[in-house]
Amino acid sequence: MNSGKAFMYITVVSTAVGILSACDEMVDRKQYFGYKPNCGEHQCFCVDGTAHCIGDMIMKIIPRLVRNISVLHAECYDFSQLNNESFKNIQELNLEMLHLRRNDIQTLSEETFEGLQHLSVVDISENEKLNNETLFKALRHLNRSNIVTLSLRENKIEFINFTLLEEFPNLQNLVLEGNWINSISSPNVMKHLSVLKMTWNQLRKKNSLQFCLQGRSRFPKLKRLYLGRNVLGRNGKTLQWEWTCLDTLEYLDLSNNTLIEVNVTFFKNLTSLRYLNLAANWIGKVYGLVYPPRLEEIDFSDNHLTRHPPNLCQHVRKHATFPTIKRLNFGRNYLQTLGTRWNCLPGIETLDFSRNDVSSIRKHTFSNFKNLKNLYLSNMISRSKTFDLEAFRSASLQNLDLRFNWIDFHEPQNQRMFGFNPNLTRLDVSYNNFSAVSIESIKYILSPLTKLEELVMQGIRLKTFPVEVLVSFTQLKVLNIDNNLIHTIEIPAAFTEELKNIQIQNISVARGLINTVTENAYPLSLINSLKYLNIQDNQFDCGCNMEWFRDNINVSGYFGSAQLLNWPENYVCSTPTSLEGHLFVDFRPEIDCRPINPFFVALIAIGTSLVVFLATASLIYWNRWYLKYLWYKWNKRKRSAHYRDPELQPILDQTQFDGYVVSNCNDNDFIHHPFRKMMEEKLGYKLHIWERDAKSGALVDVMLDAMYASKQIVVVVSNNLISDGWCKFQLDVAIDMSIEFGRNCLLLVVLEDVDFRPISKAWCVLLTKKPTAYWSDDKDSIRYKLCEENVKTHLGLPLSQINA
């Protein structure tokens, strides 16, 4: 294979792998469609007449599907050259909606859709190499009178064949988002189109948007027009298109463009316009004489408005008003003050100034808005904020949002800020400074709000459940105190009767520190009006303290009359460790918290004591020699402590033998005859041989006295000795004595070849590290003579010669 073909092969494989990886990220097969394919022949999932088939970038043909399928989503197929062969198995279905997404379509044959004549929705999206010309030729063979929605998102289409689309008489929704289109100018008319989505294209020039032909609309029934994420207004140019003919348009999206100023008069002929979206531009100036007659909402959020809101009425004729405008959004700008003079907008109901740099609000700022109902002032950037006592004065205000402002409610002035909102029904003061503010103080702060129906106080570090608030505000229907420091829900019995008469419907204490809910929460279950109780994502203790709460949750997840929201999947045990991560619904107090029979307690105690006694006795028995050795050493050290004069010490520790012999009884013939004769008769050493020299008395004491009275310990190593526990104990004592005296006291005399297979590592180390003499029965042999020399070298002069 030459290098060119190899490179091409690698490129194709890499592209396929990349697309397949993208499909894996896009399609969560288990989450959306069950654990196994349930229809078709390959990776198809069917639910309520909808099939979702995944081709894994290898399949070229849609498999056979069950006959009731009317909606098909086909993703990640190898449709690089799409034709009617790909749909041969589904042509008998009455397929109404076809969604082809991320299938790497490059070309389409003209007859591709000939067998699919019942389609009303066609979606061909996310194909980077799609050939525009073949696409529109294939679309021509659809049953054009049936098509209601055509979606061609993210295909890098550069032009639109409006001549063809004009032949779709009932086309109502045309989606062209995410392409490379730079113009929609054309002489063609689309009579029934109501939604046109051109978001994320390359529209920028004045003549790129042609909506009118000789004063008549190209889209006479267009209601929603999306032009966001283009380059409209580039180089500071204002909007100058001809909108006059779009008299049916109700929604206009110009967000995420490059507009730097807006003349609202430009939209005056959009006589049906209700919503104007100008968010996420670079707008720093707004002006105009006239507003569209039916306009209800303008979104100025995320722009570059600085210092104070624009005077929307500055150039309007005196006494002219536009009462239809109800909602204005100035969030995410750079406003520092909120002074407004909008006399021409008497119908304002909603104002949003969230995420601005407002540090103070003066009195009567909003009192001129006689119809104001909703005021959003959350996330104001400045940390130090001052509010005049009457800053929020408004007789009409119903909804006030003050989240994430760090307002200090310890300040006396801030505690009275709601005294001029008699009709407020919803208040959100989440994530402000209520630290160490008592429940009584909170009641005082909220006391003027007699009509309050919804109260949100998330993240204010509440430590106790505010039952006093529940009984004080009888109109309250929703209480949200998520993300606080409440550990348990306790309601004093004194509040039981009062709780029966309140109107609360929804209580949320989620994502906190609740670990126990005991009988003290019983009054909650008696609130007849309570429909929903949300305590999910807390730190539940699945122990016997929660037995009462678990017993009072029925199989449907109801606590009293209230449904536990997101039960059971979001109610998880945190403790004990054995149940951590388990669902609370699986906690079985009738099993885990059953009282233990005293008889079994006594039986277990007796059995445990017996086992401990037997184990201790067994341990003592098997280690009795070593325990006696430790006792012997302790007594010896205690006796030595009475004699401080070093001259008396030899009297205590007289050396009587040159060597203490450690051997197995089966080797006695060797010990008493050839070995004794060489050691005592020939070499002159005095040995302690157990059968001959042992004194009467306790076995271990006699052995230890003899070893401490010997200059060296001589171990006769044989296969018999290695398996002897008593000899192993004497050897351990000899090693310990070497450590105690700081010199080697051990000599090994190897009687025979030892079988190393069954012996431990300790024996192997001992045989290689300690002085060793190898015995030979042949007295004339070199080995015998070496054995004598090794013995004399290690034992030195006999005691008889030293004493002489």
The secondary structure category is alpha/beta
The geometry reads as: elongated
- Strand tally, please? 40
Strand content: 15-25%
- How far apart are the termini? 100 Å
The poorly predicted ranges are 1-41
Specify the helix fraction band.
10-25%
What's the rounded overall pLDDT mean? 87
Walk me through what this model shows.
This protein has 804 residues and is of the alpha/beta class. Helices cover 24% and strands 16% of the residues. The chain is built from 20 helices and 40 strands. The strands form 8 sheets. The chain has a 23-stranded mixed β-sheet, with no helix packed on it. Strands 37-36-38-39-40 form a 5-stranded parallel β-sheet, with helices on both faces. A two-stranded parallel ribbon has the order 4-6. Helix 6 (467-472) links the parallel strand 28 (454-456) and strand 29 (478-480). The longest helix has 25 residues, at 598-622. It is elongated. 33% of the residues are buried. Residues 1-41 have low confidence and may be disordered.
